[in-house]
Amino acid sequence: MLEEFRKFAMRGNVVDLAVGVIIGAAFGAIVTSMVSDVIMPVIGAITGGLDFSNYYLPLSAKVQAGLAYADAKKQGAVLGWGQFLTVTLNFLIIAWVLFLAIKGINKLQKPEPAAPAAPPRAAGRGAIADRDSRSLEALARSHASIRDLLKR
Hints:
single chain, about 150 residues, mainly alpha, Non-ribosomal Peptide Synthetase Peptidyl Carrier Protein, Chain A, two-stranded antiparallel sheet, 2 strands
């Protein structure tokens, strides 16, 4: 059973997947940092420091108004619509940055060479000019067979 597991773990697909997950996690950290540390501060400066993450709707009478979202959650049930809006906005920004990154990576890759064009067909009149090479070979074999029959 250990040998079977070793074969499974060392298959190309599993190793490729592991490398992809590790690279993806590292790339995800880069994109998250770019959004958190570069893009969101610019958006915050443009909107005057507006932060939706602390907007909520208290669902319990125990929750006092005016508290930070984290403190309000400790007091009772709250509907954190501002946090949801912030996470959704972060997702859209991350998706946009990934789109631009992948688009740039695709431009850096060399284009695949075009498939060679099919050779032009023989021009001319008559049935033989329109046949492909396999038909011509079959025709030659049948002529050879007829010649052999006539010689007998």
